Amino acid sequence: MVGFRSGNGSARCRGLVALVATALLGACGDAQAPGVAGGMRFPGAGWSRAASPESLGWFSAGLARARTYYDSIGSAAVMIVDGGALIEAWGDTARPIIVQSARKSFLSALFGILDADGDVNLSATLAQLGIDDSVAPSLTGAERQATVEQLLKARSGVYHEAAAEAQWMKDTRPARGSHQPGTFYYYNNWDFNALGTIYRQLSGAGVFEGMESRLATPLQMEDFAAASGQYQYESVSEHPAYHFEMSARDMARFGLLFLADGRWGDRQVIPRSWVERSTRTYSDAEANWYFGYMWWVAKPQLFGGHTVWAARGGSGHAVFVVRDIGVVVVHRNDGVSARPSWTEVHELLRRILAAKG
Question: pTM of this prediction?
Answer without folding.
Answer: 0.90
